[in-house]
Specification:
The protein has helices at residues 3-15, 20-23; strands at 41-42, 60-68, 73-83, 87-92, 121-126, 136-137, 144-146, 149-151, 156-157, 164-165, 175-176, 207-210, 213-216, 246-249, 255-257, 260-263, 268-271, 276-278, 308-310, 322-324, 330-333, 344-345, 354-356. The chain is mostly beta strands. The longest helix is centred in the N-terminal third of the chain and has 13 residues, at 3-15. The chain is globular, with a radius of gyration of 21 Å.
Length: 366
């Protein structure tokens, strides 16, 4: 499965001695796309391998036993994936396959205790999504849970932020969760959870709980391996040369991959780069707002959602952090920089990813 890696160093050495006119006529072989099925059953602390974009390739039953480090509780997680000709359905209790609550960004506990959903947490995605030309963004809505994806351990991806800047807050940067009036649906400056580690409590998997619901706010290494370097060392055996595995599905049914893809032009496997960049000028009050804005002298650019804008071609990925890979498959990617995952989707999102708050019941734990 990893023979392409073992031979890649030798290929580079040979090519380095060839004249440019010969090099221009050589096309390196693209490694076979890794379609090896993932193991089923007990997936405690497992990483995945399968890159098949069809959600039906993941039909099965999965479970794990994990430790809530903060509460010293043991939880059992479960995920069942079923499929028919047109859709795949994910049913879980939203407990991950790894421990939760360790090594938090602030060194403190979550604001609420992690708890399994006592209801069936059910999400449905289309098996044969079509990519359109217009991005559909996931927007927060009052009394609703709005999701960016379902991961292959049963946990949802929630890129939204309920944290904001407000001069009423007494924290050093006046960033906090606040009340519905202070942040709510219409705050001017929403703080990106992963970019504010001193104010947002996230564990080592960039997850935390809200009213018991554990969810991810950013990229992590829970389901796919990631190395320090941008370009994959050919000797690394934990990541396939064809790229990172599918780790989840977006609301439109397109897959979410880990960090790596095979770059045909460069002939290497490397991390995908986002095309979102930050403004560099001083902030201004948003249109129609009279509220004070956080100056860049004290609040560096990049910590708020409103600091970022999409610039086509700046990186590898489109507005929704997606691209078509070397095998002709469109999908979204984890990135180490904003937006970290799919903020939006280019296919039609399934309605199940927008649900009432009552769809999650922690059984009275919080």
């Amino acid at each position: 499965m990893y023979s392409i890696k073992a031979s890649s160093i030798a290929i580079v050495l040979v090519l380095s001695f060839l004249p440019m006119q010969v090099l221009s006529q050589i096309t390196l072989a693209v490694p076979d796309n890794n379609l090896t099925p993932n193991p089923q059953g007990d997936i405690t602390d497992s990483t995945l391998i399968n890159r098949n974009p069809d959600c039906a390739a993941y039909v099965g039953n999965y479970w794990a036993r994990i430790h809530d480090v903060q509460q010293n509780e043991i939880y059992d997680s479960y995920l069942t994936i079923t499929a028919d000709n047109n859709t795949c359905t994910f049913t879980s209790n939203n407990i991950p396959h790894h421990d939760v609550g360790a090594n938090t960004t602030t060194g403190t506990d979550f604001s609420s205790q992690v708890a399994p959903n006592v209801l069936d947490y059910v999400l449905t995605v289309p098996r044969h999504p079509n990519r359109g030309n217009r991005a559909t963004y996931v927007r927060k809505q009052g009394g609703r849970i709005t999701l960016n994806g379902i991961m292959l351990n049963g946990v949802d991806l929630d890129m939204d932020s309920a944290f904001c800047y407000n001069i009423e807050f007494t924290t050093p940067l006046q960033i906090g969760l606040g009340t519905r009036d202070q942040c709510g649906l219409f705050a001017d400056w929403y703080a990106i959870p992963a970019a504010n580690p001193d104010y947002v409590v996230l564990d080592e998997y960039t997850g935390h709980s809200f009213a018991g619901r554990y969810h991810y706010h950013s990229d992590n290494h829970g389901l796919s391996n990631v190395e320090v370097d941008d370009i994959l060392d050919p000797n690394v055996q934990s990541i396939d040369a064809s790229g990172s595995p599918v780790i989840g599905f977006a609301p439109d049914g397109f897959p979410i991959y880990g960090h790596y893809f095979y770059d045909v032009e460069a002939g290497v496997t490397r991390k995908a780069k986002s095309s979102w960049i930050t403004y560099t000028t001083e902030r201004e009050a948003l249109f129609g707002s009279n509220d004070p804005f956080p100056p860049i002298s004290t609040h560096v650019r990049g910590i708020f959602v409103e600091d970022w804008y999409f610039q086509a071609g700046y990186g590898d990925l489109d507005e929704c952090n997606g691209m078509t890979d070397a095998y002709g498959n469109y999908g979204y990617y984890y990135t180490e920089d904003y937006p970290y995952g799919p903020l939006c989707s280019f296919g039609a999102p399934d309605a199940s990813f927008n649900m009432p708050n009552t769809a999650y019941d922690d059984g009275g734990v919080n």
